[in-house]
Every structure is written in C-alpha cells, then in structure tokens.
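Entry:
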Amino acid sequence: MDYSIFHSTDINWIKGSVAVALVIHGWALRILMEFVPPSGLLYFLVHSGLAVGAFLSLVVLASPLLEEIRDNWKEKFLSADLWFLLGIVVLFFTSLVASLLYLSWTYYEIIPTALTIHAFGRYWLFRKRQYVADSLPVYFNRVERCNRVEPDGSVMRIPLADLKVGEEIKISPAQVIPVDGVVVTGEAYVSEASLNGSTFPVVKQPGDPILAGSVSLDGVFTVKALAPYVARKIQPIVHPLLSDPPRNTVNHFSRFGVPALMGSLALVAFTYGFYIGGPFMALVQVSCVFIVGTTMTWVSGIPVHYWTGLVHLAKRSFYGRHPSLIKNLAEVDHAFFGKTGVISGNELRMETIFVMPAFQDREDWILSLAYQTSRLVQHPLVSPLKHVENLIDGQPVVEELKFKIVAGCGVEVNLTDGLGKHRTLRIGEREFILGDNGEAVYRSILEEHDLTSGRRIWLSLDGRLCAIAKLKEAWNITPQPSFNRLETFCIQPAILTCYSNFDDSRLEGLLCEQGLSAFDKQKRVEDAVDEGASVMFVGDGLNDYRAMGRAKVSIALRHAPDPLLARADAILASKKLSFLIFAIPFCRRIVLLSKRNQLYFSLAAVAASLCVLAGWFNPLAVVLYALATILVVWFQSFILSSTNLAKIEVQPQDQPGHPVAREFASQQNPKR
C-alpha cells in the first residue's frame, strides 16, 4: 500500500496539495455560511461547493484506503480503515441529505479535514517504515542467508530456511555461524563469546565442532550443517515489521478487537442518538464514533512505535555515546563501574589501572590473539601476556613475546600465535588520555612497574578500552584490588551494581551501591554531572547505555546473551552491518511502549465515544481529538529520537582483504 501522497519526488505530491486546498476551501465556505447565511441560489451554490469539495477529497485521498480494504478483504480481514472510511461516507451522505432538506446539520468541511489528517498520519508511518525497510535488509541479508557450497564447488546464496542438514556452507571473516556443525575445510580464529561469555577466540580446524552464534574472526572455512536453522531472538521483533500489514501480528488487535469495539459502540451510538434526536443525530454520532474510534485503534494497532524505534536504531548507536577524548585524566572526577564483572570476578586481580581511548573501530579480537597466548585470565578487561610456554590448542608458541614502546603509537607487541602466524600489534594513540605529555607519563608508568622487559605487562582492548595494569606476583592468592592510581588523579571510583546481595571483601573501602537498575545508574551519573563533575562510566554496552549516554567518557564492555548480538563488534568491523543489532534493550522498551499505547488509546477511543454519546463531541471535536492522538505519538517518537547518542550510517560492503591488514590500515587514518 502506498501512502506516499506527499512525497516530493512523486507525482502524488499533487494529490497532497489538492487535499490541503480542499481543506481550505471547505472551511472558507463554512466561515462564509456563519457570517452570511445563504439563501436561494447562494444556498445552492455554497452547499454544492461544499459537497463537491468533500466528494473530491474522497476521490483523491480514499483510493489508498480502498486498495487496502480490498486486499484485506481477500485475506478475510476487516482493517480499521474500513470503519474509518465508513464513518466518512456516512457523514457525507448525512450532510448531503441535510442540505436537500435545508437542515443545519452539514459537515462537509470535516470530510477533507479528517481524510487529510489521516493521510498525513499514514504518510508519517510510511516514511518511518521505509527508513526501516532500507536499513534492515542490510542486516537480514547478512544473518538470514548463507553461502551454500554446491557439489561442483561453486557457492550459491540461499535463505537459511532452505539449508538442510548435511549441506555445507562457506563462512567468511566476521560472519556469524548460523547453524551447529563441524568444520570441513579451512581454519580460523572463532569467537564463542555468545556461548561461554569469553572474549578469547579459539582456533577451529577441520573436524572441530562449531556452534551457532560463533563468529569467524579472520579466516574462511567450510562448515557442514548438523542441525536445522533456528530463528534468533530478534526475529520475532523485526519480522512483523517487514511484513505486510494484513499479516502483521501487531494488527491482531485490529483484526478482532476493532470490529467488536466499533460494532458495539456504533450500535449504542445509533440507538441513543435515534432516541434523543432522530435518524440524523443517530447517523452523525455513528460517524463520529467510527472516525475517532478507528483512529485510536489504528494508532494503537499499527506498530508506530516499532517504526519510530527502529528508524532511530537504524541511524544511531545504542551502544553508548562515542567517548570524547580527555586531554588530562585529572579532568575526570568520578569513575563509575556499572558492570560488576569488570572488577568483581575472581579472575580479575589488578593493582593499578590506567585507561586511554582506543580507535573507535578497533576490535578486541586483535588483542585476543595475545590473550590466547597465555590463557591465564579469562576477562575482557585485563589479561597477562606472560607464561608463553603455555599451549594453544596443543600448539606451542614458537617465539617469545616481545614488547617495546613506539613513539606516538604506544606499545608494540610481537608474537607468534597458535597457528604459527607472526603478529605485530600496536596499541595506543598519538595523544593519550593522560594528557599532552602522555607519552612521557606513559613511559614512566611502564618503567615504574618494570614493564619494559616484557616479563610483566597486561594489555586489554575491548572496543573502546585500553587498560594497562600490573598483576601482583602472587596472583594465585586472592588480592586486594587497589584504585590508588585513580585516586592519585583525584578520581573517585565507585561500583554501581544491580546485584542486591553483592559482597566482595576485595572491594573493602570502595563505595558500592547495590540493587541499582539502569535508570538508577543513569540517575547517579546525572546527579554527578549536575553537580559539575566529569564522569567516566565503564559498563555493559547493552544494559548501561542510559548511564553511558550521560557520561563524558563511556567505555563499553561487550557481553551479549543473544547469539545474534555476540561478537557484533567483529561483525561491524567488516562494515557490512549497521549498529541496529546492539539495540535489543531499546527495542524491548519500544515494544512495551507500544503495548501500553494499545491499551491507553483503546481506552481513549471508548472515552471519546462516550463523549460523543453525551453530546460533548461534535464531528469537529472528533477530528481534533484524532489529530491530538497522532501528535501524541509523534511527540513520543520525537522524544525517543532525540536521545543524545552518536549517529552512524549503514556501512557499505568492505573491500576484500585480511582483517589484520584492514586494522593496521585504519591505524594510519583513524576515524573519529
């Protein structure tokens, strides 16, 4: 169905102009009738002009409604537009009969007004849906299709629903493994963060089992499917949004609730109106009930907020605000750690911590290669690069780990990974978070803790966080973590955790607030900001985005419970997806808002119908009431879309090349 009657590039823009002109025409004649009551020939001309204007508005604006009604009828579905159009037609013929009988009950001007408001609301919905439809295929073409290997060795792109057990699919770098299977040919590092919560990649070689939700990081290999494809969690949210309205599950209410509600209200309105004012009053009240009732149920039954939210997600990142570069760490007054696992896990034992921003598009899988070298600390924040004699999947590291400070770059790490590939990793930026003299400060810190020899250095990079820490010598004994370095910079660290019974003796003396929701964390950050403080927030990019959006520096740790979301950073590094997949919590918020609106607007329809029965609402008041309803939804959309988050665009297809090569290329020209 096409509601783009006001699209500036479409010839139907003329229809929009005609509709507005008919509204002005109708109200001009109505005002003329109020000041100069017509009689004789003038009465005939004025009423004829009003009737013709109302009829033309039906011809111009009702055609999309008729098309949808026809399509829905074929699906054995009575849409809300049928009741709306029925109310308009009843009002038109009632006014026409009133004109012939010289009665004052004519509402010709209401017809183009109601149709135009309805069309504008539909057009707004159409635009929202179009934005989403343009963005989601980028996502679904990536995760709902796969490259099946044919018997002749060629590759065919097919929907995952058509993939059968026993068939082989080709997996490329940064691609999500869609089904459980076993590696047939090729090898690569694969992230299993969605399955076990670890950011450490594992090597997958021929014969190794692989589970759906894993992500290929740097290799191309073939997987034999051992299980059928199972839909992911996001699909029940998004699939209805891309389907046609008659098949939209959100329209379930419109399919059954609207006929029952409108039928009962119309019956009461006709009976009561006929009793107090005769047939004309009864028909006018029925028309008012149809117009206001169907507008309310249309707004509540069609997923306006789904479109609003997904349009917002298609353009913005709900992964926390882009961190601003702080020239001096002393500018930070408070450091809130919203993710309890950041500092409470048994595997995290650090004495001092320093943070500096990393390239926005840098991927932590690069340093995961270094993580894989030791496998001593399974945590995304801190990992030691020592004990290189450890084995990686049965393959020893054949070369020692070497570290050196590179001017303007930070630290350079040279190692040979478990696949025998030599890696050179450069971590850092030209301007460190420690200030303009950051390089000297950075060097002195490393020298202070004897980190230049390569024996004790811990580097971690999780998207936006680069932490340098010293691990206590007796690291097997539960240590007492210290934030002395943060306190040296006059930074007050605190823990904001959702766990109400959180208790960790290692955090003795450190401020810890328990049982806090995402809103509570946001409130803590806002309170500190309102007091003039500069806040750094380290948290979960999915659950703490509210607080992160308010902090001056936000650092996101990626922990995704859904296989679809897991390792989304690696997927995004390929520049083949939008940030839409980071926004499941916000989608759920929109779903909740839509469900509430469905209830509230349905109650508003009943209330408006009662006002019509009481004689408080005439057709003009009904139209204004409907307009106010659409404006309320628009205002909610505006509030949702005005969140202070960084805008992003759907990235074009990345050029072929090894991810490591692309990564080092990005270092030469980092994008802020």
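The mean pLDDT is 60.
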